Every structure is written in C-alpha cells, then in structure tokens.
Amino acid sequence: MIAASIVALWFALSQIDYMNWFGIRKSAVNTEEKLGELIWESIERTEKIIRNDSINAAIDSIVTRITKANKIDRKKIKVHVIRKSDVNAFAFPGNHLVVFTGLIDACENESELAGVIGHEIAHIRKKHVMKKLVREIGLATLIATAGGNGGTATGEILRTLTSSAYDRKLETEADLTSVDYLVKADIDPEPFAELMYRMSADIDLPEAVYWISSHPESEARAKEIISYIKDKDVEPRQILSDSKWKWLKNKVSV
After folding, report:
1. How many other C-beta atoms can be found within 10 angstroms of the C-beta atom of residue 235?
2. Domain that holds residue 161
3. Does a structural domain hold residue 44?
4. How many domains does the chain have?
C-alpha cells in the first residue's frame, strides 16, 4: 500500500511542468531574446550589414527550402548577411543566424553553403547556443547582461560565439542534423563534407574559424558525415540557377 502510494505521488509530481509553474521557462526565453537584441545592436554598430535585397533573397531561398522541408517555422529564424572576409557563420541567442560573405565566397556551390546553414539552424533548434554560453560565460553573467548590468560582457559573448567551436558532441550533433535537414530538403549533403575537408586543409585560414577547428578533428567530422549519408537517398533539386549562384558569388566577392 505504501509503495503504491509513493508511486502514485511520484507520477502526479512528474506531470507538473515546473518550468512553467515557477515562470522559469518564460524568464529564460526573455533572457535569450534580450541577449539577442544586445548582440545584434553591437553587430550593427561594428559590422557592415548587407542591405541588398537580391543578395538577402538568394540566401533566404536556401534557408526557406531547409526550414519548409523540415517543418521549422521560417519566421523564427532571423538571418543576417554581413560583409566580412572571414569564412564563417554563427548563431546567437534569439534564433539569429549570421552568414559572412567570406563563407559564401569560399563555397563552390549552393549545397556547401546549405550544409553550413543547416548546421547553424541545428545549433538554434537544439538549444546549443545557450548551452555553450552558460558553460563558457556563466548564467549569472548572462542574466546580468540581459538585465543591463553586464558591463562589457556583450562583446565577450559575441567573441565566444564567433571564434570558438562548440564541444565535439554538439558539433557532431549539428553536423548530422544538418545532413538530415538537407536530405529532407532534396539537397545533396556530400558537398558539406567536401567543404569541411577543403577548409581543414587550407593553411591560410585563421586558427579559430568558428565551425572548422583543428585539421584532424574537422577531417574526422567530415568522415562521420560521409559515413552517415551512405544509406540516405536524395534526388537533389537546384535552389539557385547556375547564373544566380555565379551572380551571388560575384556580388559578395566585390
């Protein structure tokens, strides 16, 4: 009887949504949104944002293909293109995704770029961004920054997101989730692995390129992707025409 009562009590308590009960979830969402706003304000002050509608539309078409095929709310992903030569892309709090023109210029085709975009969307969807910041910056600092008492922490947060990789487990999860996104969106995932191989072998890249870390690790990740896609069937459908892709590459390399 006592054992049965304990089990019943445990079951009843397990049904309570403590996150909502104590307002913790709402507070966490508000903190994340505010951090996103502060980071974006910092980026707008210091970086050259691409305002060209045609360039943004080309990138948006890739994002839209991925999100639509994977039943992800496109409106919740805020995409920004920044004119910067760094071969980089990163996500930051509030569902923001930044793509540098240097990355677009380095990609040989739209599938390579789609792989990186899918990788960043995976970080957003899997809540990796805040996990990384809590671990490396600290929850107290993040809350203080969101509340306007973080001093210069916004810059530190931005540097953390743009110059250091996630831990291997999260990076691998984002890689393989991106592959799943691409397959469902009828985008060939193999070029994503090819891009990682090529970038890991490029000695001219800086040591801390966000999503490409050391050569051995990047090569291992590329091999994992190749192994993962062996049994996946995909019939690629082009997103941008060849002429449109060439036009995009030309516009961002100026």
Report:
1. 6
2. 27-253
3. yes
4. 1
